[in-house]
Write a structure and sequence with these properties.
110 residues; mainly alpha; 53% helix; elongated
């Protein structure tokens, strides 16, 4: 990436990222790579800025906004709930311990 102007961290970036995630209305879900592209930065730049306390706080908040966005869209069936579960499980390192099959035994008592 030689020759490209690297975006420098500025104190306005945490708020700018928060507003990007909060006001997102494009196709798909808000993401850090989409935010980076919107300001002419790379995902690596965004990840590197996490060393700044205020940016790290905004980053965590934006992660939760994204998570909430995905869950709401899955619950309303705008997104596939199974795929949303897969995405969030992969992102948060959650393993599905549920068995693949379920047996239910019913006894009728008179």
């Amino acid at each position: 990436m030689k020759g490209k102007n690297k975006i420098k961290y500025g104190k306005e970036l945490p708020r700018q990222m928060y507003c990007f995630f909060r006001g997102y209305s494009e196709v798909g879900a808000p993401s850090f790579i989409k935010f980076a592209a919107s300001i002419g930065a790379t995902l690596g730049d965004v990840e590197g800025w996490r060393v700044h306390g205020e940016f790290e706080r905004a980053y965590r908040e934006c992660s939760e906004i994204r998570r909430d966005y995905l869950i709401d869209n899955a619950l309303s069936r705008r997104n596939d709930p199974s795929f949303t579960k897969f995405l969030l499980s992969a992102e948060y390192g959650i393993e599905d311990d549920a068995p693949d099959d379920l047996t239910v035994k019913l006894e009728v008592v008179r």
